[in-house]
Amino acid sequence: MRSNCSVYIDAGYLLASAAVRVAGTSLRNGIHVNYAPLIDQIQTVAQEYSGLPLLRAHWYDAAKDAVPDAQQQRIGELPRTKLRLGRIGMDGLQKGVDLRIGLDMAAHARNRIADVFILVSGDDDLTEAVEEAQSHGVQVIVMAVPNANDKPHAVSHHLIRAADEIALLPGTVIDETVMRVEAPPVPKQLPVSQPAIVAQPQRSIAPQPAAVACPTPRDLAAAANRAPAAAPTATLAYSSVTGSAGRAMPGFTQEDEAECTPDTIDAVVDKVVSTFVHSASADDLAQLRRDRPSIPRDIDRALLLDAAQVTGVYDLSEYTRYQLRERFWKRVLSA
User: Fold this and answer.
1) What is the CATH number of domain 5-180?
2) What positions does the domain NYN occupy (predicted)?
3) CA-CA distances (angstroms) from residue 164 to 100, 102, 285?
């Protein structure tokens, strides 16, 4: 049997890391992805790096009730690409994705479908799957996504130690297939057709109004965050994604407070908010304002992932989570 390589792509890691490279934060709705060329280029890189023909690439993502959406269906129809889906739980989090990757790698290694596995992920939970595949004589290469400085982004130290080799996906693969989302432009007001004006003695013609300028994302954010007359205007403290505003958070230690400095928290929050405002429509911003104090799951996840990446602490304390969410609302309301 001829030798092959097989690719395992953790879509959550790939897209979040690509978003950090392109937009500066892991917020996925801040980017637009051309999936077909992205996957095709990853397949090409895998063959060139391993020196072996590709058997297939496996794309791991999550969907509601594990039913693929339209985009995921198109991914599953790509040549030599196998779609593997976990679920999105009631809490909005992915379920079963890491387990599917681990089970597939273990089964494929036992059956020796390929001699080299290339894993596009940085998840610590896949360490044992890597070691299980290696025990069956398979070489496992972890291929990381580069950050803006062309360094591996968010790869677990345990995964680095377990892998046979750490490779870097070329930055051009991301730069050519992933783009930062631009907010849809607000159309300029079109002039209303006016009937011809016949000059009349002793009458003056009122000046025409100036053209309406297209508002910037900052203008849209300000408009969306403008409180209605009957609404309170005080900034609300926020304790959790579905928690209540204004609740005190007693009992924190100095160690909790030292985990993530105020400047670091501000930097993370500013990047997430600016990316969201840059890519959101006026309706999106207004909906965010109406849903306060609930933070959309994708935004909350980006806040936590970005903070974890900056601090190197992947189990953030409740104090840090509280501060991130509280300052998120302060930043949104002051935008």
Assistant:
1) 3.40.50.1010
2) 6-165
3) 21, 17, 46
Angle between helix 318-334 and helix 297-311 axes, rounded to 10 deg: 120
Residue type, 216: T
Residues 6 or more apart whose Cβ sits within 8 Å of residue 225: 285, 289, 332, 333, 335
User: Per mean pLDDT, which range of 57-61, 76-80, 185-189, 238-242 is the poorest?
Assistant: 238-242
Phi, psi of 304 (to 5 degrees): -70, -40
The pLDDT of residue 44 is 98
Query: pTM to 2 decimals?
Result: 0.71
Domain ranges of the chain: 5-180, 217-334
Beta bridge partners of 168: 144
Q: Give pLDDT tens digits for 55-92.
A: 999 999 999 888 999 999 999 999 999 999 999 877 66
